Amino acid sequence: MHRRCGVRASEHLRLEVIAAHCGATIDVARIDGALAQLVRRGRKVQILLADHVTDLAAQRFSIAHELGHLVLGHPTPQAVTAAKGAPVPAQERDHEEEANAFAAELLMPAAWLRHRCEVGPVGLDVPRQISQELGVSILASAIRFVELTTHPCAAVLSRKQVVQWAAVTDTFPHAITRGRTVAQTSAAGAFFTTGRAPDQPQRVAAADWVDAPSESVMVEHAAGSPELGTVISMIWPEGSGGSGAAQCAA
User: Fold this and answer.
1) How high is the pLDDT of residue 48?
2) Phi-psi group of 244: left, alpha or beta (phi > 0 → left; psi -120 to 50 → alpha; rest → beta)
3) Which of 242, 79, 223 is nearest to 157 (CA)?
4) Which site in 5, 10, 105, 240 is 20 to 30 Å from 126, CA atoms measured?
5) What is the per-residue pLDDT for 78?
6) Dihedral in degrees, nearest 10, Cα atoms 175, 179, 182, 188
7) pLDDT in the model for residue 82
8) For the segment 150-164, what is each residue's pLDDT rounded down to a tens digit?
9) What is the per-residue DSSP string for 144-158?
10) Rounded to whole angstroms, how far apart are CA atoms 216 and 77?
11) Do 203 and 80 meet the contact criterion of CB atoms below 8 Å apart?
12) Using one digit for the tens of pLDDT, what is the confidence trace for 83-131?
């Protein structure tokens, strides 16, 4: 897709141009229950962007996600429902995950970013740079970092002091359970307690996040969103942050 559309640098990632190459237009509409939707009406293909989505990063990822459905040949809801009230047939492929993977590669190409995610340091500094340069959210760029690095680390989203999801590398030695209560002694816990996360990576007890001996230590770099009431935390075992790993506060 990048080759077809002449994408060689971040300034070439113009989604309206890419959509046009795919035979689609992008229009704003009132949509309930979704950020965007792929609609086919005969030969006309539209990506409808919900009018309540005002964040640019959310707009871009939502459009790229719908482009994924189009390019990968996923059926639209109208196509998979034979008649009103008919059940949607089970599918072996996870179309939503495929569309997310397509959007991540379209907006954050591995060929551009893998070397940056490999050299370290682990933390949120590189995801923040990717977010600013490519117009994606810090959540999306943190997940992408975890996908592309070989350093053992995890990106964790928490809301209301509860883990919502976690993306981990194959080399991360623990599982982080969805629904786990965020410890008040963690960097994310500091945000939920005081409204502010520490600016620098912090040494925290591994048991704050995973089932580990009390003496085990990890490093956490967190960023909170007062508007959303969420925290994104990058977590990694102490001493495994790669060459030039960031200094962490005691």
Assistant:
1) 96
2) left
3) 223
4) 5
5) 56
6) 80
7) 40
8) 999 999 999 999 999
9) HHHHH--S--EEEEE
10) 48
11) no
12) 445 555 556 789 999 999 999 999 999 999 999 999 767 999 999 999 9
Q: Quote the pLDDT of residue 246.
A: 47
Task: Please give the average per-residue pLDDT across 221-235, as a whole number.
Answer: 95
Distance of CA 12 to the CA centre of its chain: 21
- C-alpha distances in Å from residue 109, one per residue of 22, 62, 171: 19, 17, 22
CA dihedral 166, 168, 172, 174 (to 10 degrees): 30
d(CA 24, CA 19): 5
What are the structure tokens assigned to 76, written together? 């639209």
Whose tokens are 């009132």? That residue is: 30
Residue found under tokens 């506060």:
249
**Alpha carbon of 133 to those of 8, 107, 164, 193, 232: distances in Å?**
14, 10, 26, 31, 19
Residues composing the chain: 250
The mean pLDDT of 223-230, rounded to a whole number, is 94
φ and ψ at residue 34, rounded to 5 degrees: -155, 155
Q: Is 151 left (phi over 0), alpha (psi -120 to 50) or beta?
A: beta
**Is the Cβ–Cβ distance between 126 and 117 less than 8 Å?**
yes
Question: What is the rounded distance in angstroms from the CA atom of residue 219 to the CA atom of residue 204?
Answer: 6
The token duo for 147 is 């996908």
List the one residue out of 171, 170, 175 whose CA is nearest residue 156.
175
pLDDT over 90 at 79, yes or no: no
Which residues have C-beta within 8 Å of that of residue 223, sequence separation ≥ 6?
A: 124, 128, 138, 197, 231, 232
CA angle, 46 then 52 then 53, to 5°: 70
